[in-house]
Amino acid sequence: LAPRAGEAVLADVASVRGPVEAFARELGAAVRIVGMHPMAGTTATGFRSADAALFRGRSFLVVPAAGADARALALVGEIARDAGGVVIVCSALEHDRVVALTSALPLALAVALSVSAADGATELAPFAGPGFRDTTRLAATGADLAEAMLLANSANVVVAIARLRTALDDLERAIADRDAAGLRAVLERARTVRARLD
Fold first, then answer.
1. CA 87, 90, 91: angle at the middle one, nearest 5?
2. Across the beta sheet with 9-12, what order do the strands follow?
3. Which of 20, 75, 169, 185 has its CA 20 to 30 A from that of 85?
4. Is residue 149 within 8 Å of residue 16, measured between CB atoms?
């Protein structure tokens, strides 16, 4: 579309912004590209899964690429608000760093948890309550989308996984050493972080 865009604004919903930003920089000011990434979704696919209220009240990340002007940004912001989203403007660099933590890392964790639990038991369904089901929900994400989310933003995802590994190591150490004070410190920190989301 870029060679034919003219004065039009090109908006996309890619969940990784780095490649789009690199493409926009190659084009210079010749085209106006603005990303609009809603922080909402389900693992369901297809038109039957459509939900008109999906974006209502959800953060809608608006990411202007090189060459985008204020008018392009305003137009995409208006579309996001019309869809019910709460607009947050950020750079491609910030977007990809934060989304690695809030989208790709939960996906990776859900995959790892599902695989590790399956290796430890033959039939999980009778034993799996809401905690396990909620925590592994993202493992049902289609392989094409999951692969793109993890590989297209690989540098940030690898850093996020390393942070998770450190946190798991701290938990494991506290549990193995029966270090109640150390364990409580980690648990309280986690509760504080989670409470801020609400």
1. 150
2. 9-12, 32-38, 59-64, 86-89
3. 20
4. yes
- In angstroms, the CA 37 to CA 17 distance is 9
> Which structure tokens are listed for 72?
């392009």
Tokens of 67: 């060459």
pLDDT per residue of the chain (198 residues) written in tens, 0 to 9 = 888 888 899 999 988 999 999 999 998 778 899 999 999 988 888 899 899 999 999 999 999 999 899 999 999 999 999 999 999 999 999 999 999 999 999 999 999 999 998 876 668 888 889 999 999 999 999 999 899 999 999 999 999 999 999 999 999 999 999 999 999 999 999 999 999 988
